[in-house]
Predict the 3D structure of the following.
Amino acid sequence: MAAVATMEGFEGYWGPPTATMDWCEGNYMVTPYAAEFFNSLTSMFIAVAGILPILVHFRRRDCMEWRFIIAFLSVTIVGLGSVAFHGTLLFEHQRWDQVPMLWTVAMILYVLFEQKHVQPAYRILPVVLFVYAVVATLATSKRSGDMQWFSFHAFFGLATFLAVCKVTLFYRSLPTDMTELRKVMSYGFIALGVAITVWLMDLKLCNQLHMLPAYDYWNFHAWGWHLMVSCGLYNILIGIWYHRLKVVLEKDVSLCLSPLPHIAFVPPPPGVSEKIQKLNAYTGILILGTAPPPSPIWDLFPESPSRPNASLGLQGG
């Protein structure tokens, strides 16, 4: 258990911690209603990383398989559970964080094993993963203390190791000409590597880190682990989804990297106006469809009196 700082003599709204983990951020340092304020706040990064792909691409539901919808929503549930865990440091809320993590990694394993098959190839796989998730849930939610810590990390660590192996093999199998996909996957690997590094530092070097000025307010678990694991999961899941659409299901899609990696669908779905498509070209984010090649911003407002004319040597796209 990590050493922590706490406001001396102050218990906070949720009472003394009952969770098996109490992270390096000082308890109730900001408000009496949040045990670890910044850890709780930045847990929303994880929730956003899960729901964002669904919101960005919701107009193309024909391309969103249930396996990816469930995987993305599972990540969001993990983030919300993490908010509750860090906000209260109660064991019952710790389970809201850890149990969804077990089910999420099981769902991601299903996505990875069935990635290259149009139709499900491993009929027994859902049963195996379901049994794993149930057993892991029972083993980690009915115990406390060091045994609970060991049980959770044993089950979660084993499944995560298998997922990392599958993702690594997937990445190594990608053709070199799929540069955008390889970049997105690389960004995901780098982000997860940084996330694990700062997670371990916050866990093992807490006393030393607290010698740094105001460490409670910029601690590694909050601004390192939560932020970087969100970026890593987002990039890797987007990359896997794009590969399945493009290569396996042979959909007419492209992968856009800036400023937020997303999948562009061709042609745009019905009902997407020309102005919205042009606006997407400037934001770089696919909101309601696919953006065409960028054209001057004034083409969005053809009747605007500020539109430049040809005499200035400027032309519309």
About this structure: The chain has a mean pLDDT of 84. The chain has two domains: 37-252, 274-312.
